[in-house]
Design a protein that fits this description.
alpha/beta; five-stranded mixed beta sheet; 12 helices; 10 strands; binds 5'-O-[(R)-(carboxyoxy)(hydroxy)phosphoryl]adenosine; binds zinc ion
Length: 342
């Protein structure tokens, strides 16, 4: 029997503040994963400035793509298809990746595949877990999204719950700013929390009325702000590390409880996490422990594949390509693209 031809995906990601390109072979083998981060530039402003992000993407994107091909030891003629994130994200940032991918596709005649950013985050789990296949439950926790979903098949999702207000990552970023850690909040809270006591302050674990799988983090954020205000009024010095650890514990408790409930209710024994917040040390440990106790198989990407990268877009792009998805040159950036909607 003739050996199936290898499929090489060149993937491009520019939805927020990382300019990234990768080459992925046959869906799960990452040959290169180049990430040019703008974090240092945005730190001066306390968060991502969309206009600056777009300009920096334009400066870097060609370089990053060339480097991805070089490190993968392939040339453009080896590539089967071009995958690109077209939403959700910052419109100006997304447009840089989308326009570049369209130009490459037009110049080379290679097919273009638009990829959903969150689908990319979920697909990051396939990189290091070669045998993982749907169906499984996945919790996506990023800067803009908190979704609990059943991955029914490649590219087929059933959303069980999402956040009613702030995303998990947004809560980390806002609390970090409130306690004076600055941007980017998630990794800074992760680090300082290691020196704090997670039981020091009892922050609320919010439940959303009538929906056991939805999340709400704005009350928790307000509780942290109120705690800081009351310390300041009483002229008591607050402990940054204790606040960080207690806040992190409150977020994690809710995420673990909702997720494991879903895994058990739907009779699925496999659970995965994805998105930038999935890089959080305490969250990873909490899920590991809880899944081990309940005998649930737990999957998580390495931290580098949790935060924004193009390898995950290459993986998702591969499965879309295999499913026959082809985008036209009218592919546009869709800032609020919903999961499961094409
Ligand atoms: O997935 P991502 O890189 O970008 C989006 O698609 O939004 O996620 C970024 C979010 C930010 O809110 C960042 O603070 C958070 O992920 N994050 C973390 C950690 N690393 C990144 N949150 C908690 N702990 C971390 N170690
Ligand atoms: Zn992301």
């Amino acid at each position: 029997m003739e050996k199936e031809k290898d499929i090489y995906i060149l993937a491009i990601e520019s939805s927020c503040d990382e300019t990234a390109a990768a080459v992925v072979r046959n869906g799960r083998e990452v040959l290169s994963n180049i990430i040019s981060s703008q974090i240092e530039i945005h730190t001066a402003y306390g968060g991502v400035v969309p206009e600056i992000a777009s300009r920096k993407h334009i400066e870097k994107i060609n370089q990053v793509i060339e480097e991805a091909l070089k490190q993968a030891n392939v040339c453009m003629s080896d590539i089967t298809a071009i995958a690109v994130t077209y939403g959700p994200g910052l419109v100006g940032a997304l447009l840089v990746g989308v326009s570049t991918a369209k130009a490459i596709s037009f110049a080379t005649g290679k097919p273009l595949v638009g990829v959903h950013h969150i689908e990319g985050h979920i697909s990051a789990n396939y990189i290091e877990n070669k045998t993982l296949e749907p169906p499984f439950v996945c919790l996506v926790v990023s800067g803009g999204h908190t979704h609990l979903a059943i991955v029914k098949d490649y590219g087929v999702y059933q959303i069980l719950g999402c956040t009613r207000d702030d995303a998990a990552g947004e809560a980390f970023d806002k609390v970090a700013r409130a306690i004076g850690l600055g941007y980017p909040g998630g990794p800074k809270i992760d680090k300082i929390a290691k020196e704090g006591n997670p039981e020091a302050i009892q922050f609320p674990r919010a439940k959303v009325d009538g929906s056991q799988y939805d999340f709400s983090f704005s009350g928790l954020k307000s509780a942290v702000l109120n705690y800081i205000n009351s310390c300041e009024m009483k002229k008591i010095a607050y402990n940054q590390a204790d606040i960080a650890a207690s806040f992190q514990k409150a977020v994690t408790d809710v995420l673990v409880e909702h997720s494991l409930h879903a895994v058990q209710e739907y009779g699925l024994n496999k659970f995965a996490i994805a998105g930038g917040v999935a890089a959080n040390t305490a969250l990873r440990t909490a899920f590991e422990t809880a899944c081990c106790q309940k005998k649930i198989e737990f999957y998580r990407p390495s931290p580098i594949f949790c935060t924004d990268n193009a390898a995950m877009i290459g993986v998702a792009g591969y499965y879309e390509y295999r499913n026959g998805v082809r985008s036209g040159y009218d592919l546009n950036a869709v800032p609020n693209l919903k999961l499961g909607v094409r």
